[in-house]
Amino acid sequence: MKRTRSLGVACILLVLVMVPAAAAQDHPGAQPYKQVCQLCHGSEGRGDLGPSLVPLGFDVDYVLAVVREGYSQMPPISTRELSDDAVRQVVAYLESLSSQTSGVVASSYDGPRTAEGQPDLNGIWQVLTTAAWDIRAHNAQDGVPAGLGVVEGNDIPYQGWAVTQQQENYANRMTADPVGQCYLPGVPRITYMPFPFRILQTPDHVIMTYEFAHVVRIIYTDGSPHPLPNDFWMGDSRGRWEGDTFVVDTTHFNGRTWFDAAGNFHSDALHVVERYTPTSAAHIDYEVLIEDPTVFTRPWTMRMPLYRRVEEGLQLLDYDCVDFILQSLTGQEGGAR
Amino acid sequence: MRVRCFVCGVAVAALLWVPVFAYGGQEGTYAPPRTPWGDPDFRGHYLPGPSQPMETPTNDSWRLPEGANVGQGAAFSRFFEPDPDAPPRAARVTTPMVVDPADGRIPFQPWAAEQRGEIMARQDQLEHLDPRVKCLPSALPRAHLPVGYNTYQIEQIPGYVVMLYEWNHLYRYIPLDGRPHVNADIRLGMGDSRGHWEGNTLVVDVTNFTENTWVVGHGAPPEGAPASALSTGHGVFHSDALHVVERFTLTDADTIHYEVTIEDPEVFTQPWTIAFDALTRAPEDHMLFEYACHEGNGRNISLMTGADIDAARVHATR
């Protein structure tokens, strides 16, 4: 009975996806995409050696700049191979694919909503996983609780050289972990640091403020694209609502952060897609898609719940690790007595 | 015990202290727009206001103590060369920020004036080095002084005003529901803010500061004054008894006037007040960028003080 129903749902989904996809092949941008881009970015922009381009988080000017100058592993492409007009057509093609695939997912969310009709995520949240120490399954160590891991399949698809690099990171983790040096933790690590964070949701932005090192992520939801290449510890985040799911696309990392304290790592080609799906007033299903063709053989996923902190009068306090470092240098007790 | 009684006494005196002047007469002349839920609407992006001296400018308001490191003072002033990349700023104002007491001077207790001199003379020692150079929080009102790196985003939701600071990615939530401050044992780099509306003015009461930040300090010495003069506002330290009351008022569509009373009976002889146009509305496309201070400043700190902050980073948080 259950199996029949799943099959039925699968058929409907297949129809929903297939019909517009077939029409998209007539798009004038489909042909140049196939000739030049598909080899790395996969069929219909779904990603292969290169990152997925659907949904497309960049505007035409940005794509033109990257196509001509190259970016990370991507080589520059000349106007002879792909004219400016052809780039514009490819962007339009990828945008048409993007609008088709952002299908509305059925939601059982019955919590509060904003005046704009979106789930109201305002408030203080925190994870209860052990992902901050190790995102994969791990046994307890002194000061580290055991955990089942948050990586789907418990398998991080490292390339050969990266397996060795991760093992080296793990061996040196007590001194090499960037967070141990009080550097900004990057995304998604900041989400599952064992500290609360507060979501500030307005009609124009979703702003995430974290107790750890007073980190801030300002997530623009006005449809604006990522800026031209700049590197940030926390990346550049652009958000959108897909039904009741808040989807955040983050790129432009500096490649100096880790995923956890166990040396799981990435490069500056990291592309993170977070999906915040509230399932009740007090729970968010947090799913993270990780892409980094420099380090991994394929995209992979983490998933964990976020819990709303409900204590009366709760507010974010300080965890200013800069202060701890200064105290160790001066031998003085700092301001946080 | 003796100290405690002294503090109590001064605190009582401070409670009895009533401001005589309505500084600048800024309030009530402009009717700001309202949020959908009826609060004055301060939302938006802001740049710092025009530069302005802290105190009545004099060249002798601070002297090097005997045996001080004079060379370091000279090096220190180099940090305040004009920044070509800073956003455009309004013309410099020459009147002092300090509007009370009437002489335009910060009312240091004598020992505190001496201590301030020591701090300014010993910027090559990590414990005296400018806390902002060390990437500690700005504290208040320092976070609102006119420095190029101070740009702002203000957001409002029912029951809260939220201020975001580009410098060192600081932020503060200001609840407006009249709740009490957190427990006195809790210490916060930006203090603990509690706000309410008085007409169109946002009044914020801030306590629970740490002891390792400065009250003020900014890079705008007046013409002719040495950078070491108190008119720069640098080195004005405080105790954990610091109590700040801020008043934010939109005086036109683009300007937030800022008046703040600073009270710390362990350091100053009386509460004192500075007032200035602290926030100027930014151009449409303004956004706050990531200012990863600690990540970038280690080499500077090592050069200035000889401390190996890079090595310390690895061990301190273990």
Overview of this protein structure:
The complex is a heterodimer of chains A (337) and B (318). Chain A is an alpha+beta fold. Chain A folds into 2 domains: 5-101, Orthogonal Bundle (Cytochrome Bc1 Complex, Chain D, domain 2); 123-330, Lipocalin, CATH 2.40.128. Chain A is built from 7 helices and 9 strands, in the order ααααβααββββββββα. In chain A, strands 4-3-2-1-9-8-7-6-5 form a 9-stranded antiparallel β-sheet, with no helix packed on it. In chain A, helix 1 (2-24) packs antiparallel against helix 4 (84-101), helix 2 crosses helix 4 (84-101) and helix 3 (60-69) packs across helix 4. Chain A is globular. Mean pLDDT of chain A is 86; it is low at 1-22. Chain B has 318 residues and is α+β, with helices and mostly antiparallel strands. In chain B, strands 1, 2, 3, 4, 5, 6, 7, 8, 9 and 10 form a 10-stranded antiparallel β-sheet that branches. The chains are: A alpha+beta (337), B alpha+beta (318).
